Amino acid sequence: MKYLLKYEFRRARLALLGITAITLFLEMVYLLGYLLDINALFTLGLFGGILVIACSTMAILLYGVFMFNEDISKKPGYLLFSTPRSHAQILASKLLMILFALIGTSILFTLCIGFDIFLAIQKEDMSLLSFFAFFDPSITKNAVLGTIFNLPNYIGMGMYVLSTIAEFLMQVMVAYLLIVLTKTMMGNQKGRGILGVILWIVITNVISSIGGFISSALLILSEPDSSFSNSIDALNGLMEMLFSPVMYLPSMLISIGCCIGGFCITKWMMDKKLSL
Amino acid sequence: MLRFEHVTKVYGGQKALDDVTVSFQPGHVYAMVGPNGSGKSTLMKAAAGLLQPTSGNITYSNLPIGVETKKRIAYMSTEPFYYDYMKIRDVEGFYQDFFADFDKDLFAGLLGFMQLTPELKVKSLSSGMAAKLKIAATLSRHAEVCMLDEPLNGIDLVGRDQIIQSILRSIHPEATILISSHLFDELEPIVDHIVMMENGRVILQGELEEIRKQYGMSISDLYRSRFAASQPYPYPPQM
């Protein structure tokens, strides 16, 4: 598996280096604008940074999907599929590469944003506590209590990130499944590419909607009565602690389930039907 | 022994292989001959595990084709198949990482013989150089079965000699070698068995000398007499 991953990364290194270079360039533009008070650079860096965060995620997804399609449709696939590795290992290495690329770029973005916040605090002579108070005024009322009772929010945020990653992997897995399906079961049928894209949009949206529906239902069930909520802050915090992270659990579990199911079906089709 | 039993492969309604039953013994060099689309490449790809037959069985040493057989069977396709980013030394690294039977000294020797240097980028190689690289890499595996699909395609005369020499110096006496080519005259000195295919079927197979004696002509003449005229072949397949 490690060699499969090694060569997946070697193939992807140009794309990943490109994302890293663009991110660092925009970060530099932002910092120059911020530190030298040049509004044009500041704005360019800020909006460019936001754009690159959104686009790089999409780029990783598209790159992973195109590379897989190339492997089972074009000649370089002979090299990969001639290796003494099972289809399950090949599939898993591709998913892991995408997962690691996503995690790597997320860490890069987090480091850049963290550095920007650190500089902002230094420049404005602001405490970390008052910085967080921008987002949650309750922190300033009682710093310790505020932090403790907002901890579930951070857990919830963590769950949100995990749920997003699981959904991202589910989207990649559905794309892999459809690529193999169009290549095997659909044979030489005309328009199979377009059909595959339409199916991908429909399936991923249905899966996301099911997760969203269950989460909404849970939110309604967990939301306390407003008068009760307003009168007992501590209980409200407790409710948040109990239920906020749970909000993301259904969609995360559904995405993971679909990922595992999609993986098994794709592997089965590759084992039984795939011809390069 | 590499064995095909009633193997059929259907692509979009067309039979690329049609009830093929044939076996390849260790220690022999087989020439796969037949016109374009006769099923030679499909047969090799099926043995390499790159395609799944529609029906029938393919086994090597009684193992179904899969991960285990890929460790012991080397396959070189007609088309270039290395990644564009690779240099020749990356190709070496790839084979070393994945194939325990890869001999890097043999590879270095074959590269030198074919006048290729490790720093060359695969993408920048001419078609002849790319073909030599494929051959060098495939032959550098001490595989029990080695399948070369059209190894002389697009190669000049000197290059063909180099390739023939490379095959001769790399062949393990116990290995099973399958070579498909339209340029049979040049392969004739190194092969000892023939498998002739047409429309996905094996129409003739056997030992080279026996077939020559039996039909009283060279394999090239036999090929011409069969495929130049569109008459049905008068002889039943030899099993």
Give a structural overview.
The complex is a heterodimer of chains A (276) and B (239). With 276 residues, chain A is mostly helical. Chain A folds into two domains: 1-126; 142-276, no CATH class. Chain A is 88% helix and 0% strand. Chain A is built from eleven helices and no strands. The mean pLDDT of chain A is 81. By secondary structure, chain B is an alpha/beta fold. Chain B has a domain at 2-81 and 143-227: P-loop containing nucleotide triphosphate hydrolases (Rossmann fold), CATH 3.40.50. Helices cover 34% and strands 26% of the residues of chain B. In chain B, strands 6-7-8-3-9-10 form a six-stranded mixed beta sheet, with helices on both faces. Chain B has a four-stranded antiparallel beta sheet with strand order 2-1-4-5, with helices on one face. In chain B, strand 9 (193-198) and strand 10 form a beta hairpin. In chain B, helix 4 packs antiparallel against helix 5 and helix 5 packs parallel to helix 6 (157-170). The radius of gyration of chain B is 18 Å and the shape is globular. The interface between A and B is medium-sized, with 25 and 28 residues.
What key phrases describe this protein's structure?
heterodimer; A: 276 residues; mainly alpha; 2 domains; 11 helices; 88% helix; B: 239 residues; alpha/beta; Rossmann fold; six-stranded mixed sheet; four-stranded antiparallel sheet; 9 helices; 10 strands; 34% helix; globular
Topology:
The complex is a heterodimer of chains A (276) and B (239).
Chain A: H1 2-35, H2 39-73, H3 76-82, H4 87-124, H5 128-133, H6 138-141, H7 143-184, H8 192-222, H9 226-231, H10 233-247, H11 249-273
Chain B: E1 2-11, E2 14-24, E3 29-33, H1 40-48, E4 55-60, E5 63-64, H2 67-70, E6 73-76, H3 88-98, H4 104-113, H5 127-139, E7 145-149, H6 157-170, E8 176-180, H7 184-187, E9 193-198, E10 201-207, H8 208-215, H9 219-227
Parallel strand pairs in B: 3-8, 3-9, 6-7, 7-8
Antiparallel strand pairs in B: 1-2, 1-4, 4-5, 9-10
Helix pairs in contact in B: 4-5, 5-6
